Amino acid sequence: MSSSAVQLPTAATRRHLSDRQAKTVHKLTEAAVVELIEVGYPALTVRTVAKRAGVAPATAYTYFGSKEHLVAEVFWRRFEAQEVPPTDRRRSPAARATDVLLGFALVVADETEVAAAVTVAMLADDPEVRELRSRIGLLLHQRLSEALGDDASAAAISTLELAISGALLQVGTGHLAYGAIPDLLAQVSALVLKDPR
Amino acid sequence: MSSSAVQLPTAATRRHLSDRQAKTVHKLTEAAVVELIEVGYPALTVRTVAKRAGVAPATAYTYFGSKEHLVAEVFWRRFEAQEVPPTDRRRSPAARATDVLLGFALVVADETEVAAAVTVAMLADDPEVRELRSRIGLLLHQRLSEALGDDASAAAISTLELAISGALLQVGTGHLAYGAIPDLLAQVSALVLKDPR
DNA sequence: AGCGCTGCTGGACACGAGTCCAGGTTCTAC
DNA sequence: GTAGAACCTGGACTCGTGTCCAGCAGCGCT
Predict the structure, then answer these.
(1) Who has greater pLDDT, A173 or A158?
(2) Is the CB of B47 less than 7 A from some atom of nucleic acid strand D?
(3) Which of A42, A136, A163, B150 is a plausible cystine mate for B162, CB 3.0–4.6 Å?
């Protein structure tokens, strides 16, 4: 690894991080993922993540005010870093919408533990988490609008946004299996965008 | 008041509550509402609610394992107790759906504080809260299915459910004003059920 | 009236989260 | 190479949450 000067994702933690700080933050978010997979969200604490990252708890707390903040940051980084293929207007609006929604939902889908954890963490009413939620909501809206262009009303986009929120919520609470998401979202898109055929 | 023998709502706390216990639980849920309105959700604790209800904290903890459980119970009781007018098939499916969804969303709408609190509380990953969520989800599904009958596909109902989850979520996180819900839900219903005006 | 059971009391306790700070370590500029 | 700044360390501290238990009170039964 030795990712000394690599371009780390934009930090949503504090403005103006030095390289050194960025690296510390990066170690923490990476450690958080591992911790999530190995011990699960409930057992995860800022302290254990700090330990795994080889960093003092107090240091971790200077960047992340809570475990929710830490986990939400993981989601944000992945979502932001996600590659967005250019819109292909030959495909139906519903198909395009499904792509965006799935991209969003599956950012963390490799590991189900991570997925559920992130969803729950995103709901905390922590100022840092609120900020991340806003950014994520905004970015999702942009990606949806861009993919759909004039093919969708504002109401349709709102509905899609509500539906994806609801879907993640239900996954987070365990009422919906992560594996069921693709079909469900495809259905929703088709319905909302009245896919011809 | 002296509500000695009145029919209190079904308790989702423990099975087989004696009259005396039911009364204690009732005092607690009422006190929780007042507490929410007066000091807000973050400041609410099981202890303060117990105090307001004139009950020892330990007693409160025998019925509610956490403040989330307590608040979620408030929502459940109100939703369950809600009167459901018989389905009027002369109205459009979209209008019927909107009614059900609004009824759900506005159970606690009188006081915005309560609304936001409930939404957040519902998300806790507490076994008691999970149970309440299941019940609520089921009851909502029943009411929707009943109101729509054969006028809606399973996909449409799923979409409506996702949308209402998402809407409450966004309210809970402060990204959506409670007042905006009626219009939004009406839009969604119209779109999903292709209201032929 | 007296007995017994059920439910409530209240205070002590364990535990974990988040804060704070004085001191040590690493980086940067000269 | 050295000074100074920026950053990290580690351990102590506070505070709130949820648990536990020994004793007390209220209610139904005889």
Answers:
(1) A158
(2) yes
(3) A163
